[in-house]
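We modelled the chain as a single entity of 129 amino acids. Its sequence is:
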Amino acid sequence: MSQMNRQKAEQAILNAIYAAVAWLILDFGLLLQEHGEDTLPFLASQPQMAAGAIITVVCIIGLFFKSRLAAVVLFLIFLLPLVLRTVQGIFPSTMLLLFSLILLYFFLAAVIGAFSYHRLKESDPPPPS
């Protein structure tokens, strides 16, 4: 990635917000397709899935505030399960792998963007008053 200016950093963070929302909508849509009207009770019976969704929503909110922690956590909660399944020999389909790599790109760009944003924000002189 080329050197980020403040505008590029903000755009990278915004793109990650869109990607995370798309990920949540897709996951919830797949749950609806599989479980129909029993989706919410199923989600309630799977606390790790509910916790993952809640953490993702909190990270999305954090990204609105340019949070570095939110960007890193979002990247890791998407990457780690993917890596663990691959290590266990559970390989995703080509389409799922492609979708995952696209989301990982946006989440990694958000991590770089969040750190760049704060570095640039600290190095910029305050506006004259």
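As a brief sanity check on the tokenised model: The mean pLDDT is 90. The chain has one domain: 6-122.
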